[in-house]
Amino acid sequence: MNPIVAKITARFEADQRNAPKAVAPTDIPISYDAITSDWLTAILCRDVPGARVSSFAVGAPDDGVSNRRRIELTYNEAGTAARLPASVFCKAAQGLNNRLMFVLSGCGHAEATFYNKVRSRVDLEAPQSYWANFDPDSGLSIIVLRDMQDVEFCRQTTPITFDRVRSGVELLATLHGSSTGREWSKPGGEYFVTWPQFWANNMTMGTEEYCNRGFLAAEEVIPPRIYERFPEVWPATMRSVERHHELPQSLMHGDVHLRNWYIAAAGHMGLNDWQNCCVGNGSRDFAYFVSTALTIENRRAWEKELLAAYLARLEASGGPRTSFTDAWLSYRQQLLSALAYWTVTLTPSPSMPDMQPREACLTFIGRMAQ
Q1: Which of 44, 127, 187, 216, by CA, is between 20 and 30 Å from 142?
Q2: CA-CA distance, 305 to 298, in Å (whole number)?
């Protein structure tokens, strides 16, 4: 057994035996049953003297890559007077496979780091966090977020108009442009790893084998002219990842499929689920978003105009000036690792959780394979 897998598995089993409760703010709950009023008070009431969480109720399970729950809250008089949040939305890694994925891929470190060190420094439509913590020794993680019940979370069936997709493209360009040239990737992973390193982390979970299985299993939605070139797909995917060593670097979201977006009250797009945040070239985010968000017909009709809008906003936000020809080539190349994210999701390895519905997998694979 991989030593990291053995360590996380042993810690998980010990937690199940001992069932510790989360009381201090530094504790990370091993389950939603382990949460206490004291822990919620420590993280939500710390800036309001005398305020306490008097009771709470955990909502229905919603599990995938992370273990998600809504928590309804009531407070004492001081907390109520301060208008502390009536509910929060939590993303955690508590199940064994969730913990393994958060450690092996690096996504636990990435998302906690985004909320603790980056979110307040970027002007984007993205969730706000009250608390974020990750423990690489146990794999436990929890992000406590503002409960955004006033937005529409996207699914693969959500209609995306030109105005909506353009607002998403411009959000990505703002992120990429404003973070170009900063030292986001430092020795020891103080901030974020590079996209090639993040990809290499994923390879430890059998990514190649299960991407290939997923590609073959998705024959019904893949054009025959691509399907018959199956032996070329994985080598080309690896080359697309290596291209990031040669291209300008900035922060990337890393997993911008349509189901990670929401439509804000004003009608523009917002972006959540930052657990794949890393350092690389923004062309992958652009390719991944446009190819999953749009129907094939609309993508073909709008992609050149969208790329031009992306490049203009990228430069205006502090990013490099990039020719359309170069950007168009990168867009095409970066579709490969975006596709790989969904072929492996269709047929995940045993060390991965069941991440997404089959219908979503086939919809996105079909769009990207075109």
Answers
A1: 187
A2: 11
